[in-house]
Amino acid sequence: MTASGLATNLPVVLENVSVVREPVTILDRVSLAFATGEPAVLIGPNGSGKTTLLRLCMGLIAPSRGQVTWAGRTAAPPTRRAIVFQHPAMLRRSVAANLHFALATAAVPRTARAGRTAELLVLAGLTELAGRPARTLSGGERQRLAVVRALARNPEILFLDEPTASLDPAASKSVEAIVRAVVARGIKVVMSTHDLGQARRLAGDIVLMHRGRIVETAPAATFFTAPRTREAERFLAGELLV
Fold this sequence. Notes:
CATH architecture of the domain at 12-88 and 155-236: 3-Layer(aba) Sandwich
CATH superfamily of the domain at 12-88 and 155-236: P-loop containing nucleotide triphosphate hydrolases
Largest sheet: 6 strands, mixed
Number of helices: 8
Strand content: 15-25%
Shape: globular
Strand order of the largest sheet: 5-6-7-3-8-9
CATH topology of the domain at 12-88 and 155-236: Rossmann fold
Order of helices and strands: EEEHEEHHHEHEHEEHH
Structural class: alpha/beta
Number of strands: 9
């Protein structure tokens, strides 16, 4: 239990986990752990299993083989974890109402919702757009809203699936600023990205995936300066892993 009395979800541990959707093996005997600390960033070619790994850690899918545990438990309600997908859905409501609804579903007391909504709007840089329909936002604005909306659950761990894919540099920079603010709050971030520059800027640890397997895990500084595997060397050099 945490100091607030809420059950912890960390560490998230995958033990020899496989996900099979016949005839395809999406994840193949993956063993990995995510504990408190700096962000963990998943990199690798498209189709390497990054999104499936995030969904497993969130508890949205079950492994075909192996086991996922949250603080040693094989079943843990997702009250302390949240996920933001690459293309997050927006409710047919205003920006502020999207946040208000998320707070309500997270059982935040009614008297606290207005203040929390205002706080999250500031964090997202969306205060001036609070009354705008969320579905009219730009891609970057939507992603910023989606990230802070996930914070309504007061998560201990936040999973982000390619949070800046298809965004321009200015929008990506704004999303990265929110990620740093989330990390500064003590929330564990596990994210996937196709952008090696972003991985360098944000990662504490790197997980390189290929063909559903973990190729290499290392602190970011070590990974980018002294990769241990040939696949990592090739990937960093811009070669295609096939």
